[in-house]
Structure prediction request, 368 residues.
Amino acid sequence: MIPLAKPDLRQEDIEKAVSVLRSGMLVQGENVSALEESLSQFTGVEYCSLCSSGTAALHLALKGLGIGNGDGVIVPAFTFPASANVVELLGAETILCDVSFDDFIITPESLEECIKASGDNLKAVMVVHEFGCSVKIKEILEICRKHGLLLIEDAACALGAIADGHHVGFYSDAACFSFHPRKAVTCGEGGAVFTHKKDLDNRIRVLRNHGMHYVDGGIDFIEAGFNYRLTDFQAALIHGQLKRFPDELKRRALLAEIYFSFLKECPHLNLPNNTMGHSWQSFMVVLDNNVDRSSIIKQMGQKGVQSNLGAQALNCLQYFSKKYNFKDTDFPEATRLFYSGLVIPLYGSMTENDIKFISSTLKELLKS
Ligand SMILES: Cc1ncc(COP(=O)(O)O)c(C=O)c1O
Prediction:
């Protein structure tokens, strides 16, 4: 079976992790600090705090920025539910904004509309660089500043993505990344918060470690925190992957190009539009409404190719639709992408023949 994703974990990465395991120093330690520094250099964002997952990163960023009870946070309607779950867990209000059908992300225009329709409690905007496709971050930042709103990037899928000339995370108040195995760099579970704000980084470090603060050679607990630390052996798994990552990014861009050339005339299938600065964490196509996606996923599986839906339309999920009385029709683009999006395999060690095989299989199925 050609899987949707395959981690680029090599013998040398595993040996690094094993040597940490042998040392007995398992919790957050020197590998975590070294990786935070390498990631800051890689992204060009001054401060990086590693943590236990992308969801933990979002929770820390929002809490660190002071989002709480009753605050309104705009979230794209099409994303993984973790983006909005953290808003809910902080007692804040999720305000959905529809995305563009062509590239699955929010646009400055849709954001402006959404802000106009929001109440006085609006405090922050969370954008999602879905599947590694970056939003127009400078324009979006300008809109946020004009309205006095914080800007958070859910960049869970977007390590390596470029927005307006910089690595994603450069322009906003805080940006959150995931190292889950579906992402291009992984340690099983893991995450990171990036920011240029020293105070915010300090607070996140306190929050991820039970609220613990080091003072005068001792410790004190200065607020109610979490245990969201990353272990040192997980951090050790990432060093080598990060060094190889520029090559992985080039390879993914090449493989995506091949999908584009083979699928451009495929019937009943729509390709993504925006490839600028894309990191190609996943490749999602959108099937026409009349195509039975479950049947395509099943038949692809029978031919040895894994495929799946892309992300969720939050307005269609039980929790959000019940709480906020959302309907499927409220966010038509997100709803369409939820029901008709199809993610097909993409990872650096795939061959060009794999891509040709997947494309011709999909074409055959969509013809019949
Ligand atoms: C857009 C988005 N945000 C957040 C997350 C959560 O990341 P994690 O699984 O590391 O908690 C994911 C995970 O897939 C995601 O795709």
In short: The first strand starts at residue 47 and ends at 51. The chain has a mean pLDDT of 98. DSSP finds twelve helices and 16 strands in the chain.
